[in-house]
Amino acid sequence: MSQANREITISILKYDPQDKTVEPRFVDYKLEETPGMTLFIALNSIRSNQDADLSYDFVCRAGICGSCGMVVNGKPVLACRTLTSTYPEGVITLLPMPAFELIKDLSVNTGKWMDEMSKRVESWIVTNEETDISKVEAKVEPKVAEEVFELDRCIECGLCLASCATKLMRPNFVGAVGLNRVARFQMDPHDQRTDEDFYELIGDDDGVFGCMSLLGCEDHCPKNLPLQNKIAYMRRKMVSVK
Amino acid sequence: MKVHYCDALVIGGGLAGLRASVAAQKKGLNTIVLSLVPVKRSHSAAAQGGMQASLGNSKMSEGDNEDLHFADTVKGSDWGCDQKVARMFVHTAPKAIRELAAWGVPWTRVQEGARTAIINAKQTTITEDQDRHGLIMSRDFGGTKKWRTCYTADATGHTMLFSVANEALKHDVDVRDRKEAISLIHENNRCYGAIVRDLITGELEAYVSKGTCIATGGYGRLYKSTTNAVICEGIGAALALETGVATLGNMEAVQFHPTPIVPSGILLTEGCRGDGGLLRDVDGHRFMPDYEPEKKELASRDVVSRRMMEHIRNGKGVPSPYGDHLWLDISILGREHIEKNLRDVQEISQVFNGIDPAVEGEKGWMPVRPMQHYSMGGIRINPTGESQNMAGLFSCGESACWDLHGFNRLGGNSVSETVVAGMIIGNYFADFCANNDVEISTATISKKLEEQQTYLEGLVKGQGTENVFKIKERMQEIMDDKVGIFRDGKNLADAVEELKELLERSKKLKIASTKMHNNPELEEAYRVPKMLKLALCVAKGARERTESRGAHYREDFLKRDDENWLKRTLTSWKSDEDLEPTITYEDIDIKTMEMPPAFRGYGAKGMTIEHEDASVRQAEVDNLTKEMQAAGKDRHEIQEALMDFDLPMNYKQKNERVGD
């Protein structure tokens, strides 16, 4: 009853930086496409049946954790929510994301980068106020909580950096992810930092003034965050400091 | 030999581990967190619907308090939980949520005025009072008396995880990712850290600490159909088991969630039903009221999951290439509500199934079927979080059997447990680390390290014939088919025997690549035998437990048997040569309960074999309550007289509410 499934080819850039004996190379894997197949399913099938030494990162496989960014036919995407059926030619090329340290094959070190970024922009609530957690919580205007939540949806997957030309020119650029984090705390009523304080963190060419507004970040953000708006907003705020 | 010394070692960087690390760091301890993955990628992020805490801010949660949350939790657990632990938990949950608010979690807030909600498939108007405007809002979840689940749309776990992870960075906790503990360092029933493999370089290192806290989450990936992330393989619990000393509790207590989407198994939150979504069958009929006239779609998860499977067995499932399923219909909530409060659900459904659930009618219904979701079992610990058998070994969160959930966890109580346990156990753990020393020789440490090095080298050089991926797949099939929602003696006995065979076979592996670093097959090769041991604990525990309680449902023993089975299963693995765990039991004492066993209020009636102590204790509780009420005592004083409990820090303080 069911139609014959087509055969697809997945071509993967394989390279192990810790193994100097083997050069980077493309390896083609052919497999039968099943209905609803995602790259998560396809790569696991390749590892189980064809190449047990293939490295990649998945955790939630539901587009929530941000582990599986990779470059698929030239575009950075979350692999777990990418269906193989979206590629009619049946040939899919996978590369590790640029902008991050390569671990092996499709696995890159986003965690290390994001930790450094978080520390650099002090990606937490800064306040002198002590909260008594036995007492009723401070009120927050529902609209404001919603706006903060909207920006807090970032999963730090790194696709914005993998699509960022500024990051190529300025290795220390904090990226849309970093600027979004600052915009988020700038809006949060719990945070007591002033625009002057934020200027200290991102008021330079590795921060908000480095962005060339090419907006690959906005185009590829899997959470559809309003990155263009927020970068422009932070830039206006930072320009008006001093 | 690389040896790292620290005061407090936390294994696992999800919400529980990170919150515990903050507790330890704040007490001035040198604290290290080890994680398989960057901590913000932990499975905690996948918790969608929300966190239970009895704030009582919104209209539908008015009058809520610790007592109601306690009663719901105990009933949900089918009287399997430790009631003292449940009290510790419900008393700290409001504090946890307020702390998280201060740390930046953008909780959805109460909006004053009228709004429309769907309750029991009917449009209902709810009006929020002006004095509640801006306080933390809550939604409805299964098995609860009040609307108690606080949330940030349907990305609650994500926002909580980011806040706590960043708080850990703020306090300079040393967080190290892509590090995997593969064996605990222990001597004379005392734990001193772990042997750890760097997942990039493959190098083994010893992390030596005064105290060790395992917070590695559940063991959902023992099953083929599960909502759990791929890293939820129960390795932390297996490390404890492999000491031969520490015990695991109630491993057979496994929860199946009613509404993962078919076929991917990705969870659609309970918030879908909490907000008014319905379950429908092949005819489009809303069938839950037929089975559960009172709670309908919002009975506890074990009950709803079983009713769904029962309905499929009655021929009312929707046939599909991936097996029969039912429908989850949230279109009646309206597009605006879905796009605001159930956005991730909509996205998952659109991306993975091509269905927009906001479209009215059949086209918008999402295919769902119950699948493994949560592990109530885990490392058996005392109320302070320390193993009952091994000093210095603590555990918190899903990896532990604290035992807050007994045989069924309520929706919204898991993310809540992670942070609450991180606060309570994290502080007891920190006190232990502050008051104890490392008393193990470096010779012993290097011996442990060499043992593991030899083991791993043996694996890559192995000349066996077995394929580790095949063994793992077969284990997952056995668990789905024979240790699932409906269980019986024959299938469980078969499962135990076949799992034992698999464990034998897993000792004769052949691995393609001999690389010691970054070799995914090598990782499977040392994890799968650990997983098989856990699977055997689950299957054997289930085989022995000849009753039905909470999520453990025996078709050959349909009643909850308080007379014989009001006890916890404890499993241990005495020797490396063993092929199955040793089981002992721990009695649950009715005489000390604040709430003696009774009917849950949902599920089939008259299905309990009662214990003689239940009515005696109930009379005691009733009399004492009446006397104290007559003497003008308040609910806190009465509770204390019935069943006193302790908490660290100032967590015992009364929780203020606007309605006070």
From TrEMBL, chain A:
Source domain of life: Bacteria
Signal peptide: none
Note accompanying the cofactor annotation: Binds 1 [2Fe-2S] cluster. Binds 1 [4Fe-4S] cluster.
4Fe-4S ferredoxin-type domain mapped to chain residues: 145-174
Cofactor(s) required, per the database record: [2Fe-2S] cluster; [4Fe-4S] cluster; [3Fe-4S] cluster
Keywords linked to the UniProt accession: 2Fe-2S, 3Fe-4S, 4Fe-4S, Electron transport, Iron, Iron-sulfur, Metal-binding, Oxidoreductase, Transport, Tricarboxylic acid cycle
GO molecular function: 2 iron, 2 sulfur cluster binding; 3 iron, 4 sulfur cluster binding; 4 iron, 4 sulfur cluster binding; electron transfer activity; metal ion binding; succinate dehydrogenase (quinone) activity
Keyword Nucleotide-binding: no
Enzyme Commission no: 1.3.5.1
Residues of the 2Fe-2S ferredoxin-type domain: 8-98
Enzyme class, spelled out: oxidoreductase
Catalytic activity: a menaquinone + succinate = a menaquinol + fumarate
NCBIfam families recorded: dhsB, PRK13552.1
Entry's family note: Belongs to the succinate dehydrogenase/fumarate reductase iron-sulfur protein family.
Identification of the protein by name: Fumarate reductase iron-sulfur subunit
Organism: uncultured Sulfurovum sp
Automatic annotation (TrEMBL), chain B:
One Pfam family it belongs to: FAD_binding_2
Active-site residues, as the UniProt record annotates them: 301
Keyword Ribonucleoprotein: no
Predominant subcellular localization, coarse grouping: membrane
Transmembrane segments: none
Entry membrane topology: Peripheral membrane protein
Cofactor requirement: FAD
Gene Ontology terms describing biological process: anaerobic respiration; electron transport chain
Annotated localization: Cell inner membrane
SUPFAM superfamilies: FAD/NAD(P)-binding domain, Succinate dehydrogenase/fumarate reductase flavoprotein C-terminal domain, Succinate dehydrogenase/fumarate reductase flavoprotein, catalytic domain
Subunit and partners: Part of an enzyme complex containing three subunits: a flavoprotein (frdA), an iron-sulfur protein (frdB), and diheme cytochrome b (frdC).
Stated family: Belongs to the FAD-dependent oxidoreductase 2 family. FRD/SDH subfamily.
Protein name: Fumarate reductase flavoprotein subunit
